[in-house]
Amino acid sequence: xxxxxxxxxxxxxxxxxxxxxxxxxxxxxxxxxxxxxxxxxxxxxxxxxxxxxxxxxxxxxxxxxxxxxxxxxxxxxxxxxxxxxxxxxxxxxxxxxxxxxxxxxxxxxxxxxxxxxxxxxxxxxxxxxxxxxxxxxxxxxxxxxxxxxxxxxxxxxxxxxxxxxxxxxxxxxxxxxxxxxxxxxxxxxxxxxxxxxxxxxxxxxxxxxxxxxxxxxxxxxxxxxxxxxxxxxxxxxxxxxxxxxxxxxxxxxxxxxxxxxxxxxxxxxxxxxxxxxxxxxxxxxxxxxxxxxxxxxxxxxxxxxxxxxxxxxxxxxxxxxxxxxxxxxxxxxxxxxxxxxxxxxxxxxxxxxxxxxxxxxxxxxxxxxxxxxxxxxxxxxxxxxxxxxxxxxxxxxxxxxxxxxxxxxxxxxxxxxxxxxxxxxxxxxxxxxxxxxxxxxxxxxxxxxxxxxxxxxxxxxxxxxxxxxxxxxxxxxxxxxxxxxxxxxxxxxxxxxxxxxxxxxxxxxxxxxxxxxxxxxxxxxxxxxxxxxxxxxxxxxxxxxxxxxxxxxxx
Length: 555
Prior knowledge:
Elements: H1 3-8, H2 15-22, E1 30-31, E2 37-38, H3 46-49, E3 53-59, H4 69-82, E4 87-91, H5 96-100, E5 108-109, E6 112-115, H6 117-121, H7 127-147, E7 164-166, E8 176-178, E9 189-191, E10 193-195, H8 200-207, H9 211-219, E11 222-225, E12 231-233, H10 240-246, E13 254-258, E14 263-266, H11 281-290, E15 293-297, H12 302-317, E16 323-328, H13 330-336, H14 349-368, E17 373-378, H15 385-398, E18 401-405, H16 407-410, H17 416-427, H18 443-455, E19 459-462, H19 464-475, E20 506-515, E21 520-525, E22 544-545, E23 551-552
Parallel strand pairs: 3-15, 3-16, 4-14, 4-15, 7-10, 16-17, 17-18, 19-20
Antiparallel strand pairs: 1-2, 2-13, 5-6, 6-13, 8-9, 11-12, 13-14, 20-21, 22-23
């Protein structure tokens, strides 16, 4: 059966029952129908957070289809609950771009899913729409101020970096001209669109810890300069109050359920190749307030989402993870060993061995943060016993715990061995989390530390625009912010064609965007873009609605 068919066969429990299981009374939640709810921020308990064990699920460098971190996260939470540990999985919300594009949905798969699958993958509780509206409100206020003759801040249109956003992949909107049509239609200028997941508002929502914090961060969004070279922020347009109004409900974490009827919290959805790639701080702390074990995930490979989870989110929110589960697939290792995408299902021990250095590098990176790791082999039906043994032998040679996980096929039952390994590694209390760099280091030092230590680069080059951005950042007094490097997920380098474990390569920083509201800088490397395009045959081609109104073809 497809993921959707499996999901439809599950009899969902009322969300009131799920909230009670989590530990929240019915009258405290804000219901969105029978199976979804918002949790008020007051439910977070700072004292209980310190007692919860935080587990991060990451992965090796993925194939284009991804390696199942979300599925693994859900399966692990089910397995822990089966072992009588109160566990909650905390995830990001799916973006419609991938849903209708190449990757499909982001609610897990098989018998490790969060439900209701269709709702979560589509409009859910409207969080993405609220983020989109808040972002575009600021864009409208900027252009309105440029047009104004009485309230103008004298913003120089040439310095504005704030684009508009929408939650679909649409490459035609990457660069556009606005303000055409005469004097009543605004001032013509070049701008563009990013995908909503790449919005700074998304990043802000996922790092804010209260309404006041949210409003302050929104006011700190850097817009550009006046003609007199004075920096302009969103608060200069008096925009932060109205933007917070639009985000009043979106800031609250969402409660749903897993296929086995356990609580799941889903909130926020920044991509890891262009943003911080993790769910909201509020959602994580909400899960930790009610759980012995809180399982969360960080997008793409460890070099992207996990590095940002540790260096940005954990540092900002004061979180200390207890373990990392590194999702590993035989198909990804063969891909990084040089196998053609069409031959990843064919047994090939030699190619698999050639791909092991990619796994080795990610394990080395985890050690840099002084957090213990467990390798989770995400089993596919095409994996051979010999291939599985090869990875286990490699893990044993490295002194790393390893478990075979059949979470897609068996749900929580297929994660029992992994859950037991996680419990044992957590109970040894060997985690001594330490960030990779100090925020007080120079911007170049921070970029180069990540590039050399995590990616394995020999050197970092800065284009003329990037060098100019470094001077601007220093002049604005923002050089003590952490860095959130935008980089391809397909390689440890910034070149998607360099697979495996490349060495002696050069990382090229094209420019550095300022996300002063979110509280980080975004060095953009290689050819990474913040508005993805659709593939030749997008997933949308297989979707439809029956005469009875049922959705089909959603993965």
